[in-house]
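In the present case, backbone shapes were mapped to integers, as reproduced here:
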Amino acid sequence: MQQSMVSNLYSQLMRNIIIVISLILLASCNSHPPCPITKDDLLQNNQGLVYAIDSTNPNSDYWDVGPDSVRGGHYSFYKDGKLKEYKFFTSKGISNYSEQYDSSGRLTKLVGEPLVHKGAGLSGDSMVVRYYLLTLNRNYKSITFSMPGHKDTVLQLERDSSFSNVSLVRYVVRDLGTEKNIKGVFKIDYENRCEPKDSRILLDSLNLQYKQN
């Protein structure tokens, strides 16, 4: 009799534990509120930056026009037009960022950071460092670049003309008359537009060496 009571209590305890774990997992999956992005949003706000992969299919995926046929964003949608998945590709078949949504518009999976691309190039006697930041459901509160021994530089976002739902920040290193080591840290303070209290900091180090030929 006593052994049976112990067994029943143990079984009830295990059921309660399973229920608690299930509730925790459910709460975790629902931590992001529904905040749908639609195909209409994409086409209205990114005119000339995207195209339908199959123009005869109303449920076609969309791709960034981009500077080439490889780099850029890729969008898949549910039949009702809500965003299902977004990926940013840096080379053929290779993405460095992705996010997935359920049918209600709730973010269910995120891989990578919203710094989806970066580059640098010479312009006269200056070097221009470019950072490309994804703006899907994000607000960028401040972006600074810090170099040892220098005052922090506050950088401004500008809309990019190559990629959809992406903004660009530039840092210019001037007077490259001699060899230079360019070292510093970009600090990007941003939040989820659907969760204003979800503030995050992204840090990215820069280490470039310039030598005049």
